[in-house]
Amino acid sequence: MRIKRLFNPKKRRQYGFAELPSCTLIVAAYNEADFIEEKISNTLLLNYPQGKLELIFVTDGSSDATPELVAKYPQIKLVHSVERRGKISAVHRAMEQVSSELVVFTDANTFLNRDALVLMCRHYADEKVGAIAGEKRVMIEEQADATAGEGFYWKYESKLKEWDSELYSVVGAAGELFSVRRSLYQPVPANSVLDDFMISMRIAEQGYVIIYEPEAYAQESSSANVKEELKRKVRIAAGGMQSVIWLSALLNPFKFPVLSFQYISHRVLRWTITPFLMILALLLNVFLVLSNSGALYTLLLLGQVLFYVSAYLGKVLEAKKVRVKLLFIPYYFCMMNYAVLAGLHRFFFGEQSVMWEKAQRK
């Protein structure tokens, strides 16, 4: 990275405020009556050149008051169908209504900073840029439980995206906040589990880069509890395996020399073999210690044991409502890797549906 900074310090061109292209913001909302008016208020405060921003809320399948609440605002185009066919089908229907050059996607239960759209869309002055990933920020209460690990994880994930973007391209975007060029958007299959990841990576597959813009962010509450977070992570893991199969072309380093390295190291390994390697590392470490291979391996085994004991204590104390933040991170890390195993099982046995009950948040 430092070598690249030394030999390639050139920054990408950016649009000025008045130059920004036309943009459409799409919000997919399913039974979000509890949050939707707060989301609308947040959306109407977003900064963008007058006359260049259109707002679309798609509420397909909602059986609560969400469509009626959205319909009260003439500034917003409501797209609604009583039939529920999943988020990605709703997004495809909304995209049929879009005529702007750029599109920004965001979730109904997240709230954007006022200049988020400006900060993202300015990067499209560079013709090589095909998509923009915003930052996801998880709000953690002061008296947090083990879901505090989610906030730490997203800080770590955001740093990886920053480095990926600087090296070449971000490896996928999160649905909380991302943007694409309308001309590059490709409808992904209706049974896509990680539709946001697939949409952005299909653009990378066309030879464009995904830029990371950390100053454009979407805030949301952490999961209501670890059980709800696990439910979400298992779904993501199942969708990750699906994406690895569908995006197999990106595994070719001859066609995508840098992107392939980023994709495999950042996503593929995490969604496929990392949990198995963790188990293998522990077993091999035990074997080496029993074989009297030296003090180094004994120290490594003690470190591994201490880590897993800390994770277990985190689980036990969580159940007893005892909050020890130091134990949240190993507990959350182990929970994530268990979710990968559960997600792989769910994918290969066909148990993951595109329609699911979203995780409850605080």
General description of the model:
- With 362 residues, the chain is α/β, with parallel strands linked by helices.
- It has a domain of 222 residues: Alpha-Beta Complex (Spore Coat Polysaccharide Biosynthesis Protein SpsA, Chain A), CATH 3.90.550.
- The protein has twelve helices and eight strands.
- Helix 6 crosses helix 12, helix 10 packs across helix 11 and helix 11 packs across helix 12.
- The longest helix is centred in the C-terminal third of the chain and has 25 residues.
- The model has no long low-confidence stretch (mean pLDDT 89).
What is the CATH topology descriptor of one domain?
Spore Coat Polysaccharide Biosynthesis Protein SpsA, Chain A
Distance between the termini: 38 Å
Poorly predicted runs of 5 or more residues:
none
**What's the shape?**
globular
CATH architecture grouping of one domain:
Alpha-Beta Complex
Q: Number of helical runs?
A: 12
Q: Please state the average pLDDT score.
A: 89
What radius of gyration results from the CA coordinates?
Answer: 22 Å
Helix/sheet category: alpha/beta
Q: Count of DSSP E strands?
A: 8
Helical coverage, percent range: 40-55%
**What profile does the largest beta sheet have?**
8 strands, mixed
The CATH superfamily name of one domain is Spore Coat Polysaccharide Biosynthesis Protein SpsA, Chain A
CATH top level of one domain is Alpha Beta
Main sheet: strand order: 3-2-1-4-7-6-8-5
H/E topology pattern: HEHEHEHEEHEHEHEHHHHH
